[in-house]
């Protein structure tokens, strides 16, 4: 069943990358928000793992709903929100979670026990991909952050190629990134993924697409195709409605942004100070 909510008491733990905190929701739900060094990383509802609080996780949930993957690799663990979602909807699916912070894994295991058929390993995302056999997964989700920023070595075309090699022929690559004013990073990441995969789309809220505020972009890619009509409808129907750009719309969004390589890769932009009230 997992931990029951102790009124309004947060749980704090020192981890490899700093300090992790599990903050209980108000209102009586057995749900928690994981914050790492002040940045919200995950939200988990232990009574209803299909409830997805964060809008970008809802976008990732849509691709799970539409493709029903049987083998999933999560690069970046957090509180295992998406892994819990998959386990609840697709109980026969096998899942692997790779998280570089061993202290965070131990904290989450103890306080919010993971569901069955989820293998959790400690390791860097690229090291895990290097060891993966070709065609091992139907879905690879890259959701890796050091604090509030994506590490540079997980933004390059070489990294995306490693993910592609670990997918089945019709598998899907999904990446969550953050960007704001100017959107140079998001545009370059879309160009980078499109250099590897033929079919690519990017999802975000309209205000985030226009660069009016910092937010999440979810990039989806496949060699054989994506369920664009269903994905567009599902995204538009979210509590925080999003837009999907693909085809000529994606080309316009990318503009002249260059493909990112290992030599040119940089950390994703830092969010504005105080964005999450910290």
UniProtKB/TrEMBL annotation:
One Gene Ontology term from the biological process aspect of the record: polyamine biosynthetic process
Swiss-Prot/TrEMBL keywords: Polyamine biosynthesis, Transferase
Domain PABS: 1-234
Active site residues per record: 143 (proton acceptor)
Gene3D superfamilies: Vaccinia Virus protein VP39 (3.40.50.150)
GO MF annotation list: transferase activity
InterPro entries the record matches: PABS, SAM-dependent_MTases_sf
Cross-referenced PROSITE patterns: PABS_2 (PS51006)
Record family assignment: Belongs to the spermidine/spermine synthase family.
Protein name as it appears in the record: Spermine/spermidine synthase
Organism: Lentzea atacamensis
Source taxonomy: Bacteria, Bacillati, Actinomycetota, Actinomycetes, Pseudonocardiales
């Amino acid at each position: 069943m997992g931990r029951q909510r102790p009124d309004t008491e947060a749980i704090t733990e020192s981890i490899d990358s700093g300090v992790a905190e599990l903050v209980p929701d108000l209102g009586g739900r057995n749900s928690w928000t994981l914050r790492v060094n002040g940045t919200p990383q995950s939200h988990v509802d232990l009574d209803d793992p299909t409830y997805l609080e964060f809008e970008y996780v809802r976008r990732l949930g849509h691709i799970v709903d539409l493709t029903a993957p049987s083998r999933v690799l999560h690069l970046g663990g957090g509180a295992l929100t998406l892994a819990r979602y998959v386990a609840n909807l697709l109980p026969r699916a096998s899942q692997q979670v790779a998280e570089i912070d061993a202290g965070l894994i131990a904290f989450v295991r103890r306080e919010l026990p993971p569901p069955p058929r989820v293998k959790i390993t400690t390791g860097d995302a690229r090291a895990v991909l290097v060891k993966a056999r070709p065609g091992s997964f139907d879905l690879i989700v890259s959701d890796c952050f050091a604090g509030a920023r994506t590490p540079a070595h997980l933004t390059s075309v070489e990294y995306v190629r490693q993910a592609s090699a670990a997918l089945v022929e019709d598998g899907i690559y999904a990446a969550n990134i953050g960007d704001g004013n100017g959107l140079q990073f998001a545009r370059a990441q879309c160009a980078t993924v499109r250099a590897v995969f033929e079919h690519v789309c990017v999802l975000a809220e309209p205000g985030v697409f226009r660069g009016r505020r910092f937010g999440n972009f979810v990039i989806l890619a496949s060699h054989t195709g994506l369920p664009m009509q269903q994905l567009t409808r599902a995204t538009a129907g979210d509590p925080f409605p999003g837009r999907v750009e693909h085809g000529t719309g994606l080309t316009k969004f990318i503009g002249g942004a260059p493909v990112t390589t290992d030599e040119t890769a940089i950390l994703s932009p830092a969010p504005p100070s105080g964005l999450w009230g910290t």
